[in-house]
Amino acid sequence: MKRKQALGGLAKVSLFVLTLSLVITTACSNNANDPNDSKGTGNTPDQSKFDLTFNKLETDLVPEPGASLLIWESKEARPFVEAIMKEFTAAYGVEVRMQELGTMDQIGKFELDGPAGLAADVITTSQDHLGKAASAGLILPNDEFEEATRSEHEAVAVTAGSYNNKLYGYPIKVMTYAMFYNKDLISKPPATMEEVIAFSKTFTDPDRNKYAFMFDAPFFYFSYPFIGSTGGYIFGNNGTDPADIGLNNEGAVKGMEVFASLRKEVLPISAGDIASDIKTTLFSEGSVAMNVTGSWFIETFRQAGINFGVAPIPAIGGNDSVTLSQVNSWYVSAYSKYPNAAKLFARFASNKSAQLLNYELTGAVPTHKEAAQNAVIQGDEITSTFYKQFSNSHSAPSIPEISSVWVPMDAAMVEIWDGNDGKEVLDRAVKQIRDAMSLNAKQGDKPSEPGSTEAPF
């Protein structure tokens, strides 16, 4: 999906990435008569790269007699979901249907349809909606398979699927960003920001719209490496303690010094002029050597004929870059008539074989540690790099208080980029965050402006 909103000024946090997936659909759509409601007509690849087996799980849990399941997932995930539904039905004899519904829309619909008995038995969403769903009692904990989930998946993915120290999610796939680079312009990607600055001095020419390195500076989500890499963080205790805000600590201020220096040394453009669509076009035309963005642009750059690679974001302040990450997970409905069958499906559709199948059919980056170490995935430069970056990421907090962070921090990034003192700006932003959290708590955690406090992914 193409991003339509330009980044600039003090614009509200965009919802564009909520509608995007890190997966790139490489398989054709199904043959079902109804594209929005399928009973699983997909097939596993005839020429699979993997030796995949789909057997019953090693558990005493069994489906309820007469169980049938409805799954909500996005259009992009359909090739995988149809294939895994077929395998699950073959193993357990449980009929499964999929209904297309974007991950950003599921919780809102679930709040209404769940109590009415109309919602899916298993839904898909990311951690930015988990706190709301868990605190409202909409979903069941991942109890039967908790130990296996914790041991098999990356810790960041487990954190993303947890709320109040309780695991709810069955992780499916990773979403984060990394550095695309044009191999015809720079043969070896820089390992540090100092190397980026050095290369920029030989390449950047604003009069010709040539830039060595571009990123969405006005968006906190994409600028987070300049906070997290040097010791800053959003909330303490792995994102669960809103009383501990680390966005203006010593490390965050240090990172913002590097951030601000790039305005002069690398990207001499005002924040209001850094538009994502322009940045994407310039990279596609060969005018930008390095472009920090998510893998939803992979196909765009391939179609543009760019000879590109992907590398981790260069180190900042002597530390490996830390991005923010999103993890999509399955969640079992608290209203399901067949919770056993639903839990079995969520586990079945997120284990090692399932994640390898998901990668093969849609390009999804796995959260499962063994799946990610498969030779095929490790030999895939793009997927392995995104996994490496994910492994060194901070999970975006799942608690409701995160809704108070995005707007003040977006504004802070703009101010600092445009020359204001980093410490003063961050202190002011943290005060605004605390004030917003206090106000939201009094209002029952309901945002005052719909859409203005959503995470930009």
Automatic annotation (TrEMBL):
Signal peptide segment: 1-32
Matches recorded under Pfam families: SBP_bac_8 (PF13416)
Region (Disordered): 437-457
Membrane topology (UniProt): Lipid-anchor
Main location: membrane
Coiled-coil stretches: none
Protein name: Maltodextrin-binding protein
Gene from which this protein is expressed: cycB_3
